[in-house]
Structures are given as structure tokens and as C-alpha cells.
């Protein structure tokens, strides 16, 4: 059995026996819930004198900040030499925050590891796939699978949390900033750890050979000692690459489990608020399949470039959690950090639409040296307050008004989009030997966005979930966009969901490979042909035009699957292809429906299809808004956010009063570029 799944089963079993172990808001009765929003900043006092700290804290208090995030990226600040801890300066910083009434998220700085640790314990160094040992030249060049690293990281976490467990400023604990954004290592010790991982997963060499299809091209493995670490950058077969990614995911989750055990021991009354980066292209990890082990509230760094991408990430980090989301880093200006007044304020309200509770600016002080030295914070390089500080003070003022009016809003989606870490790995297997790349021409994330965008623009709440990890009965509609690898557990979950009365929409390129990243030797979609009432084998690089109802739709992706319905009915046909083959089918299975789309997910096809389904499923779109404007109803009021760079007029019903701007509107709301407003009925 997969070690990570074993750990999860044990965790859930313990939580059932002892509710105090469950990671939920209910496990922390004093934790802020409805009625509290938080605006604040990330703060790194490592090179700030106490006098500077006092001035900084005074500005934070004056700006209305309620929270700071500190400690991240600062291991040698607390432990300048092995076993020698120095907390004098940070004690004073914590006391200043308490005196100002500002709460602290204490981020355990397990990444990056100090130079002294690399020097004394070279197993912490990264070894690249060519076998070259690399010096820790930048952040996150740490081998977190090394036993010495894990031992010392646990000691750091234990020492830090014990010291501040009872400090009145402590609000929450975070783990290893941006964990997931690390490097894969190829040392001999890593290879041996990988072999042990494989033994637990497959039990025998025979099972490993079958899973890796080693009968092809003379790659059969005779003993465990012949196993080598697959190359992340290729070449190499897709099966091995998938297991490489799983292995490092489990190591990352194991690191989080280590730190979570420390939190439960030393600060059981404080929740976790970690800045995750589970989708990092460098390594990543299976957050959606593990968060109940180490997470209370979904949290992340939010650097949105557009509403679909930003909305997707904000929804992904929430998973199936019912708790609000925290944005532990937040772009302090447009384009990442520069210019664009109003940019941060707009996004700070956008995340409220999606169930956000906090926006924390990155960063308070501009960096004078080291990495990110040109990044402009809320305070300029000469310690003069920037215009950005004023904007964030305005955000804090907005939040102070909104928290009395039903925020953070409770999100209870009836629609879910399936997504999985393993599927990202299946799509991205590198190298010329992975001919599936010729088939998977449309990136996985593009397909996921193609399913998400219509729902976002219809102002409908969505959950992004791992199918085998959630209670699917919470949802009425589940979308599977390009789920190329649909493992056995997820396949069975889909089958049960439909049989019990749910509706599923699956798009092309789905359910083609099994748990080992090998194509099914059964009719496709693998394991679900009876659920969808069809089979699909052939595909062509065509751009299809289809007719759905009275609407003619042109696909913009050159991929069409040939559908062979058995019990399925045809909902739409291609009008520009010979024989007008089926483009969309629907099959009744058990009490539910299974809909198959013969093209990859794309907004222009998904939008009209989903709109046909809303009413029958009891899914009600949110307020109608022009393109680029998003809205949600909160306790009878409507929050509008204009994400565009132009003024927009939004039709409204009757006379309404602006809570944030104070202006009365009748029939039409005018939002400035990047403008926001909460409307309530005129009294």
C-alpha cells in the first residue's frame, strides 16, 4: 500500500477516535470565524534594529493591520550555529506586536536550511541528475529527505513553538514557506530511500517490473540494487517518472507531518496556516490528497495575473475544506510588486468572493540586498512609507467594515472540478520516449481552466478536489477535464457518484491510463465505458465545429475523439466532420447521468453545456455581470469586483447603496477601473 495513504488512514482513524485531532475550525473554538477579516503584512525583522522595528510596528498599527506573518526564511536568525539558539531580538519583536494589538503567524523556517547545516551534513546538499553535488546557491536547495535535515528541522520547530506557545501575540503556526517549491535530488542515499519506497508500494520485483513495463526495450530489473532514480528532466519512461514524483510528494508530506506533530504537542490550541506551493513545477506535492493530515486553513501566496488563473489557485488551495482561506503572501502592487494603484485592493476583494479571510502583503520592508532586492515593499528602501502602505491601510479599513456584514463568506459549492497531482505528473512526463506527449498536446492546466472559467464567470462557487479523497455526495455536478490518469479509487468514486444520482461531465483525453501511467487494455474510457455508455479509441488532430441546441460552436483545440455510443444518447454532433460524428453524449447510469465531451475542455463549449445543466441540478448562477466583473451575494448584499483596467457599468435592480463608497445607485452601478463596491438595498 502507498505509504502516504497508510498515514492518511491512520490520521483519519485517530481523528475519529479523538475529535481534538481533526483539522477543522471546530477543533479550535477560539479561532476567528464569521465576523473577522484580517489585513496585514509579512515582516522579516532579521536586519531591522529594535528602533526600526518600533517605527515599523507603529506604522502597521496606524494602518489598521491586525496580523503579521514572521519567521519564514530565517532559520539561522534563530539558530546561528548548531544547537545555539538566540531569541533575544525576536522576543522583543513579538512583544512589540503584542503591545500594538497585532497578532502573529509564526512560520517555522525549515526552508532554506542554514549554511552551517549544509557544511556539517552534506547529505542535505542537492545532487543533480548528472551526479554533481550542488552548493546551496539559492533558496530551497535543500534535500528534505535527508535524515539529518529532518531531525534538525524538527528540533528547530520544537524549540521555536515551545518558546512562543504561550505568547499572547501568537495566532497560528505555519510550516516551511512555499513548501513544494524545492529541488529533486539524486544522491545514492536518495536512490536507496526510493528503493525502500518502491518496496513498500510494490512488495516485489515482479510487481515493480509489471508497473514499469520493463519488458519493453530490454529494461527488466533483476534486483532492487539495479533500480535507479528516474530523471525528472528526461529521458525515461512515463511510469518511472510518475513514481519519482509520487516519491518526492510523499517526502514533502512526511516533512509536513513531522511539523504537524510538533504543533499538536506544543501549540494544540493554535491552527496551521502554511504557505503552500503544491503546484510548483520544480517538485510540487499531493496537497489535495493529504491536507487533512497537516492543514487547518488553506493558505498560499497570491500573485494573480488574471482572474481565471488567480481564481483557480485560490480555489485549489481550499480543496474540500469548509474553513475560510488565508492569503499569506499577497502582491503589494501591480505586475508582482510595481506600480498600478488599486491593483492590490481589487484582488483583496476578489479573494473575499471565493471565501477568503485574510490578505497579507508581501512585504513590509523593501529588501536592500540578497534575493528579491528590487522588490518594492510597503516601505521604500530608505524607510519612507510608500503609497502602497496607504492602499493597504485602505484595504484594512474596507475589511473592518465588511467583517460586520457576513464576511468571510461561507462557501458551499454544489459543483466540483476533479484535479490531481498524479495527473499533473502523467501529463508532464518528459523525454522523447514518452510518445504520449504527442497525444497530450493540450496542457492539463489549460483544460482545467477551460472547465473552471465558465463557472467563475457565471459567479458560481466551485470546489477543486481529488476524487478519491472527498465525500462526493456534497456535490451535484462534478467535472473531469482531461483526467488522463484516473486511478482505480477515483474511477470507483465516479461510478458510485453517478449511480447514486450525481451528474458527471468528462472531457476528451480522460481515463486513458491506469494507476501506473500505462494505457488501459480495456475499452476507453478505462473502467467507465458502461457508466458513459460508449467507447472511444481513435482521435484526430481536427478542429471541430459542433451544434449544441441552437448554438454553433467552434473548437479552438485540434483534438477530436471518435465516440462510439452504445447506451448513450447524442446531445451534439460535429457539423464540419464526415458523417457528423457525436460531439457530446449523455448516458443514464443508475440514478445519475454521465456526459462525455469529445474535445478537450474549453470555455466556449463548456459554457453552453453547463448552462443547460444548472436548472435541473438546482445550481443557481450568481449575479449577472459584464465580462471581467465578478460578484457574490452575501446576506442580501452584493459584492462587485471589477478586474479590468477600464470603468464598467453593471446593471442592478432598483436603488442600492454603496457600503464602501457611500454613493447611491439606481439601475446601474458604475465601477472604476479595478473598482470594488458592496451594494445593499436602499433604506
Automatic annotation (TrEMBL):
InterPro entries registered for this protein in UniProt: Beta_galactosidase_Trimer, Class_I_gatase-like, GH, Glyco_hydro_42, Glyco_hydro_42_N
Domain of life according to the entry: Bacteria
Known catalytic reactions: Hydrolysis of terminal non-reducing beta-D-galactose residues in beta-D-galactosides
Coiled-coil intervals: none
Pfam families linked: Glyco_hydro_42 (PF02449), Glyco_hydro_42M (PF08532)
Ranges of residues in domain Glycoside hydrolase family 42 N-terminal: 42-383
Protein family (similarity comment): Belongs to the glycosyl hydrolase 42 family.
Protein name: beta-galactosidase
Native species: Pelomonas candidula
Amino acid at each position: 500500500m502507498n505509504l502516504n495513504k497508510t498515514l492518511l488512514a491512520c490520521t483519519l482513524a485517530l481523528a475519529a477516535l479523538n475529535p481534538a485531532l481533526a483539522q477543522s475550525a471546530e477543533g479550535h473554538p477560539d479561532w476567528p470565524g464569521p465576523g473577522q477579516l484580517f489585513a496585514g503584512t509579512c515582516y522579516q525583522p532579521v536586519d531591522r534594529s529594535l528602533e526600526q522595528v518600533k517605527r515599523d510596528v507603529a506604522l502597521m498599527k496606524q494602518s489598521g493591520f491586525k496580523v503579521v506573518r514572521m519567521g519564514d526564511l530565517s532559520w539561522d536568525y534563530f539558530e546561528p550555529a548548531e544547537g545555539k539558539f538566540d531569541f533575544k531580538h525576536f522576543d522583543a519583536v513579538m512583544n512589540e506586536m503584542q503591545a500594538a494589538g497585532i497578532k502573529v503567524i509564526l512560520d517555522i523556517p525549515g526552508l532554506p536550511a542554514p549554511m552551517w547545516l549544509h557544511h556539517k551534513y552534506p547529505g542535505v546538499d542537492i545532487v543533480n541528475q548528472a551526479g554533481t553535488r550542488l552548493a546551496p546557491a539559492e533558496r530551497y536547495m535543500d534535500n528534505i529527505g535527508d535524515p539529518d535535515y529532518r531531525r534538525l528541522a524538527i528540533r528547530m520547530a520544537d524549540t521555536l513553538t515551545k518558546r512562543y506557545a504561550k505568547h499572547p501575540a501568537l495566532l497560528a503556526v505555519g510550516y516551511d514557506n512555499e513548501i513544494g517549491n524545492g529541488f529533486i535530488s539524486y544522491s545514492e542515499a536518495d536512490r536507496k530511500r526510493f528503493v525502500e519506497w518502491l518496496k513498500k508500494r510494490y512488495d516485489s520485483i515482479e510487481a515493480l517490473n509489471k508497473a514499469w513495463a520493463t519488458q519493453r526495450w530490454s529494461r527488466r530489473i533483476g534486483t532492487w540494487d539495479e533500480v535507479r532514480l528516474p530523471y525528472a528532466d528526461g529521458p525515461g519512461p512515463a511510469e518511472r517518472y510518475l513514481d519519482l514524483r509520487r516519491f518526492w510528494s510523499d517526502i514533502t508530506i512526511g516533512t509536513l507531518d513531522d511539523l504537524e506533530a510538533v504543533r499538536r504537542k506544543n501549540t494544540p490550541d493554535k491552527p496551521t496556516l502554511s504557505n503552500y506551493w503544491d503546484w510548483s513545477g520544480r517538485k510540487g506535492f499531493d496537497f489535495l490528497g493529504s491536507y487533512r493530515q497537516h492543514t487547518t486553513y488553506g493558505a498560499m501566496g497570491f500573485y494573480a495575473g488574471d482572474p481565471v488563473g488567480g481564481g483557480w489557485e485560490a480555489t485549489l488551495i481550499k480543496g474540500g475544506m469548509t474553513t475560510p482561506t488565508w492569503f499569506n503572501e499577497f502582491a503589494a502592487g501591480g505586475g508582482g510588486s510595481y506600480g498600478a494603484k488599486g491593483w492590490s485592493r481589487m484582488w483583496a476583494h476578489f479573494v473575499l468572493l471565493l471565501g477568503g479571510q485574510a490578505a497579507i502583503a508581501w512585504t513590509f520592508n523593501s529588501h536592500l540586498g540578497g534575493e528579491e532586492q528590487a522588490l518594492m515593499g510597503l516601505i521604500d528602501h530608505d524607510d519612507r512609507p510608500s503609497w502602497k502602505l496607504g492602499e493597504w491601510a485602505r484595504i484594512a479599513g474596507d475589511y473592518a467594515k465588511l467583517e460586520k456584514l457576513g464576511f468571510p463568506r461561507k462557501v458551499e459549492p454544489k459543483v466540483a472540478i476533479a484535479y490531481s497531482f498524479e495527473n499533473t505528473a502523467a501529463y508532464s512526463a518528459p523525454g522523447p520516449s514518452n510518445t504520449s506527449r504527442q497525444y497530450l498536446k493540450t496542457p492539463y492546466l489549460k483544460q482545467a481552466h477551460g472547465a473552471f472559467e465558465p463557472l467563475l464567470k457565471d459567479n458560481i462557487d466551485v470546489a477543486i478536489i481529488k476524487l478519491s479523497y472527498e465525500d462526493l455526495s456534497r456535490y451535484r455536478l462534478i467535472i473531469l477535464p482531461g483526467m488522463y490518469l484516473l486511478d482505480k479509487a477515483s474511477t470507483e468514486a465516479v461510478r458510485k457518484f453517478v449511480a447514486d444520482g450525481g451528474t458527471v461531465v468528462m472531457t476528451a483525453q480522460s481515463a486513458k491510463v491506469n494507476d501506473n501511467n500505462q494505457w488501459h487494455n480495456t475499452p476507453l474510457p478505462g473502467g467507465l465505458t458502461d457508466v458513459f455508455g460508449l467507447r472511444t479509441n481513435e482521435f484526430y488532430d481536427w478542429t471541430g465545429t459542433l451544434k449544441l441546441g441552437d448554438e454553433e460552436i467552434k473548437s479552438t483545440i485540434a483534438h477530436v475523439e471518435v465516440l462510439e455510443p452504445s447506451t448513450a444518447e447524442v446531445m451534439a454532433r460535429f457539423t464540419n466532420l464526415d458523417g457528423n460524428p457525436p460531439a457530446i453524449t449523455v448516458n443514464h447510469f443508475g440514478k445519475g447521468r454521465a456526459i462525455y465531451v469529445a474535445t478537450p475542455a474549453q470555455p466556449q463549449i463548456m459554457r453552453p453545456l453547463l448552462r443547460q445543466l444548472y436548472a435541473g441540478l438546482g445550481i443557481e448562477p450568481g449575479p449577472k455581470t459584464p465580462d471581467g466583473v465578478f460578484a457574490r451575494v452575501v446576506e442580501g448584499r452584493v459584492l462587485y469586483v471589477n478586474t479590468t483596467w477600464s470603468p464598467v457599468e453593471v446593471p442592478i435592480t432598483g436603488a442600492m447603496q454603496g457600503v464602501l463608497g457611500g454613493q447611491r445607485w439606481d439601475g446601474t452601478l458604475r465601477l472604476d477601473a479595478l473598482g470594488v463596491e458592496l451594494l445593499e438595498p436602499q433604506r
